[in-house]
Design brief:
heterodimer, A: alpha+beta, Alpha-Beta Plaits, 6 helices, about 20% helix, globular, B: mainly alpha, 11 helices
Chain lengths: ~180, ~325
């Protein structure tokens, strides 16, 4: 089982509902975020292109954060989801430094926090909060090993990219382009 | 004109607008750890070579400060932790892939050894020293008896300690400036150079001081070579590493790096040490302080500049 997310950059309008849903669902402290929206305007006027991306931890298959964690607090859960065991984390910051996507932050309580793909919801058979709440339905979540999952079907049908593939991290968040 | 405007909604403290999660604690520790490694390396090396009496400053005198350096360094590391009460989790596992993990274990081995080494040489400073309790006297006898074995172990761990301070950074592929294997040897050489400088300060014999001045000049030469080599590597690499090198070649860290680290911390002390060897009268403390300053600045600048350097996407 390999959980992954596909996000349609053509459908995303950058409303930030996913950000608010995540903050509410996961009690993310005020002033912090586990997911965020990036808007990129590229080109020569008047030929401009806009890409809007909802970004989060990429739950990389070759995670630098898991590799560099000195205590094993950062680890892979079933399905390749990267999570942090709070009472094993010493707050050294190595994983924050190691992430090329800067997807982790230091929680005010001391441990390092990040997106968990809403593991607690997945275990109950639900979708991650951001996917559930998206008003344009631009996010797809599921198992890459299941050809009938939403994410597998979208990746079969559409062109996609991952972020900084050259960093060798093998991200599990795909952007449909 | 082609333009690219990136607007990110992320504003996590210490991450945005650029990473600054590691402050003064880490570079200070890396400096103290490297310096401790340098002193211990020469102390154990000359013991193993059987030249203890010829190099008393290196073997018996300078190592007295190592336990203090390591304690201050460890205190800085502890202060840097944000989930302090869980620090013991470091010692529940050994993760070979994590330099921080095996660095923590190396410190666990080196710190008590440095205390033992300082303890058996304490009479160098306090000739009347008495351990008072018979168990301590017995322990001292035992340590003195096995001193040569201890020297071999310290020799091994001092190299690991010195090189790990650089590997700690180079293991982070996310920070292009750090992601070069040159940093390990560079920090090791810088630590050895700082160690040699401190030994010069502690040495009472002119011959020993000259010997370490020569060693220091050689080490500074190696450091300069490694720095040039590092930039050559960056400039011949990918765009992110070229950008990382440009932090020092015209970017915001250009003046501080070349003036404080290279000129004041390496070239000037090497010249002063050379003049000293040529029998010019130079106050010993000047090149020593310059070398230590350069070594400290190298770590501070690499630590801070590395956190600015990042992948573009």
């Amino acid at each position: 089982m390999r959980y992954a997310m596909a996000i349609d950059t053509k459908k995303c309008v950058g409303c930030s509902d996913c950000v608010v849903a995540c903050q509410t669902e996961n009690n993310v402290p005020i002033g912090y975020c586990r997911d965020w929206v990036v808007e990129i305007t590229d080109g020569t006027y008047p030929q401009l292109e806009i890409e809007i991306r909802s970004e989060r931890c990429n739950h990389c298959e070759n995670s630098p954060c898991v590799r560099c964690c000195p205590t094993g607090a950062s680890h892979y859960e079933d399905g390749g989801i990267v999570t942090v065991t709070h009472n094993k984390c010493i707050g050294c910051g190595a994983c924050i430094v190691s992430c090329p996507y800067d997807a982790r932050y230091s929680h005010p309580e001391g441990y390092v926090d990040k997106c968990t793909f809403c593991l607690h919801r997945i275990k109950k058979g639900q979708q991650p909060a951001c996917v559930e709440v998206c008003p344009t339905k631009c996010m797809y979540f599921g198992d890459l090993d299941d050809p009938n999952s939403d994410v597998s079907k979208m990746l079969k049908k559409r062109k996609y990219k991952t972020l900084i593939p050259e960093a060798g991290t093998k991200p599990h968040v795909y952007y449909l382009i | 004109m082609r333009e690219e405007i990136i607007i990110s909604g992320r504003l996590n403290p210490n991450i945005d607008p650029h990473l600054e999660i590691w402050h003064w604690h880490i570079p200070l520790y890396l400096f103290l750890g490297g310096l401790a490694a340098g002193i211990l390396f020469f102390a154990s090396l000359y013991t193993v070579l059987g030249q203890e009496n010829k190099f008393r400053g290196a073997v018996r005198r300078a190592p007295i400060i190592v336990p203090f350096l390591l304690i201050i360094g460890l205190a800085a590391l502890f202060l840097d932790l944000r989930h302090k009460l869980y620090f013991w989790q470091l010692y529940t596992t050994i993760k070979i892939q994590s330099p921080m993990s095996w660095g923590a274990w190396t410190l666990m081995a080196v710190t008590p050894l440095s205390f033992a080494w300082a303890a058996i040489h304490i009479r160098e400073f306090f000739p009347q020293w008495d351990w008072k309790f018979s168990i301590l006297k017995e322990l001292e006898k035992l340590l003195v008896k096995y001193k040569l074995y201890m020297a071999w172990i310290i020799l091994f761990f001092s190299v690991i300690l010195g090189i790990y301070t650089g590997i700690l950074f180079s293991a982070f592929n996310a920070r292009p400036l750090w992601n070069t294997s040159i940093l390990g040897p560079l920090f090791l050489t810088s630590g050895l150079s700082a160690g040699a400088a401190v030994i010069i300060l502690f040495s009472k014999r002119k011959g020993e001081r000259i010997n370490f001045a020569k060693i220091d000049i050689m080490l500074i030469g190696i450091e300069l070579f490694l720095i040039v080599h590092m930039f050559m590597g960056f400039l011949a690499s990918t765009e992110v590493q070229i950008e990382a090198a440009n932090l020092f070649l015209g970017g915001p860290y250009t003046a501080s790096f070349w003036i404080f680290v290279v000129v004041l911390g390496m070239i000037l002390p090497a010249i002063l040490e050379f003049l000293e060897i040529r029998k010019f009268h130079i106050p010993t403390v000047i090149p020593v302080v310059l070398v230590l300053f350069g070594s400290l600045m190298l770590r501070f600048i690499i630590a801070y500049a590395g956190q600015i350097s990042r992948w573009l996407y």
